[in-house]
Amino acid sequence: MAQITLIEGVTLALARAMQEDPSVVVLGEDVGVNGGVFRATAGLQQTFGDERVIDTPLAEVMIAGVTVGMAAQGMKPVAEAQFCGFTMPMIDHLMCHAGRMRNRTRGRLSCPMVLRFPTGGGIHAPEHHSESPESLFAHMPGLRVVMPSSPSRAYGLLLAAIRDPDPVIFMEPKRIYRWQREEVIDDGEELPLDVCFTLRDGQDITLVTWGAMVKETLQAADQLEKQGVSVEVIDVATISPLDMDTIIESVERTGRCVIIQEAPKHCGLASEIAANLADAGIFNLLAPVKRVCGYDTVMPLYRNEMKYMPSVRRIVDAAQQVLEVS
């Protein structure tokens, strides 16, 4: 058992999947010789060779098309886009082909591919490197969308994604790539997709979040606990399909909910969760649902980047507002 970071959990899962299944291949820009821009694939080409860890040209459309073609022919490709903003040219292949392959062929073909890429802000990267487009991918039928928030969840969820028979978008919150270390056993055990993870049990309020915002949400929960508030924290983990059962069951107990996302507020996943609570859990709510989000603008350059993202203070303030409603 080793103490590893989130990015090392990704590397460990890729190596385990490639060791167990010769049909798993990794491809993308600089994933081989250089080991990836964030070193997620470091050492894999030396271990598995350049026919299974493939350096591609700087051409995202080509990477997506080749990945879909490989998957349709029985391989299990894991493609990397260097940054979330670079996935935009890939959307045609993802939405029009990967997500529709099973339906289009009436089950004759599936598309067991993974597209993984770093997402979110917080590392002072330039434009096109700091978006949080999870709701965009979640709106595309046929795509599963996953975002881990810890080393163990990165390892277990990526293994599950690679083994899934349908396409998975695996979004890695780069701000917490090396935030924490955690003991992870490299035993090949996957974690379940399509379920939320309850990180902390509580009775007074439910905080729902995912990805890098788990860090600030847990810190906010610590502050609220010091004020005598019993806080339940839920990590959504699988953005689509969304496990509302776990969230609704939590709100049935607490009666109050705050949803935290780094992405802009308008048309985001937080809005979808709030709408589902209005549909199925409104009679359990003791106060309106609050959303703490990024702003409806382009992620600002690095001097204002941290002002854009939800802070511990904003989360605590929203929770206190919800708790004050009697």
TrEMBL record:
Cofactor names: thiamine diphosphate
Biological function: The branched-chain alpha-keto dehydrogenase complex catalyzes the overall conversion of alpha-keto acids to acyl-CoA and CO(2). It contains multiple copies of three enzymatic components: branched-chain alpha-keto acid decarboxylase (E1), lipoamide acyltransferase (E2) and lipoamide dehydrogenase (E3).
Keyword terms: Oxidoreductase, Pyruvate, Thiamine pyrophosphate
PANTHER family: PYRUVATE DEHYDROGENASE E1 COMPONENT BETA SUBUNIT, PYRUVATE DEHYDROGENASE E1 COMPONENT SUBUNIT BETA
Pfam families found in the cross-reference section: Transket_pyr (PF02779), Transketolase_C (PF02780)
Domain Transketolase-like pyrimidine-binding: residue ranges: 4-179
CDD domains given in the database record: TPP_PYR_E1-PDHc-beta_like
Species, as recorded: Wenzhouxiangella marina
Protein name: 2-oxoisovalerate dehydrogenase subunit beta
Molecular function GO terms recorded: oxidoreductase activity
